[in-house]
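User: Show me a protein chain along with its predicted structure.
Assistant: Here is one chain, sequence first, then structure tokens.
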Amino acid sequence: MQEEQIIIIGAGPAGLMAAQILAEKGFEVHVYEQNKAAARKFLVAGNGGFNLTHSEEIDSLLNKYDAPEIQKIVKKFDNQKVIDWLLDLGVSTYVGSSGKIFPTKNFKPIQVLKAWLDRLENLGVAIHYENSFQNFDETFVYFKNKKGDFKVKYSKIILALGGGSWKKTGSDSKWVETLKSKNIAITLLESANSGYNTNPKFHILQGQYLKNIKVSFQENEKVGEIVFTKYGVEGSPIYFMNRFTRQYDFPLTLNIDLKPNLSESDILKELSGSEKISSILKRKLKLSTTSINLLKTLDKESYLDIENLSKMIKNFPIQVLSFRPIDEVISTSGGISFSELNSNLSLKKFPNVFCAGEMIDWEAPTGGYLLQACFSTGFFVGKSIAESQNL
């Protein structure tokens, strides 16, 4: 019956996971999506390397999330359970060199999604495309499509509307004003997993990579690879620093250790040799061309002072001026405050309305952690509803 429908708004990873869990329990599930197809951001993310979760031990995995509430939810549907779920869909996986979990080479992102959508169809889940969410009240949820406005009576709603980045995929954050109008506290959506705009003097390095370096900000550090761009710097160690730098006003300074496996004294000892500095940097210290080019952005006196140069190799300062615009970043921080949610992720002011995915106020770096939490919140909400409802 229509009044018993569970309405899920948003056909992204969180919404689709909730749909699967509920349908497997025998519930009538209707998913409403404003795009012409499901999970567009899921597919776009796959273009850059389709890492679906991360293989690390659970304690280390949980530490990647900033909010204790999201850590508890991820623990209930963790990385191993994601791997098992994928295998049940017929999607085998492997662990990459950095510990990320990928589908095996024969599975492209669209094939993974198709396997999932086929499963949902077999379970009786109805997905209604090109229907834009407008609002909800205690009884109805309101939509708009090409034919006009309409409303649907619901028993439960799951909001899985995404964050505020990559608007072309549907994550347009229009829901923020709707929820604010209901006096629901929303933490400001900001760029996350974002590159930084830097001091223009580094722009000459555009297109050059630094590999096996360590980026630090205060006591926080991350090893990895970064790339210089026409505006600044990008890369997983850069994205990792976002949540720590966000607490401060720009401009700020990130530091780069160009040679993490050597001490400053070891470097100074090599630089004290009789060869030319450029030769020592390349032959003895085996610094990359990009590392040497970065060091050459120093003034001549600083570059030729071997004590100063040793310090710079271990602690090169990069002044960052701002995050990149929100629409081009990988994800957003902020969202519905956990203070507005019950422990089952329903809204305190609307107990039959649940929230899942990136629209909740949690943050994680790239590397599979974002999708993991979307899967986990979808699972958690679906299970919470299933356990509380009587068919």
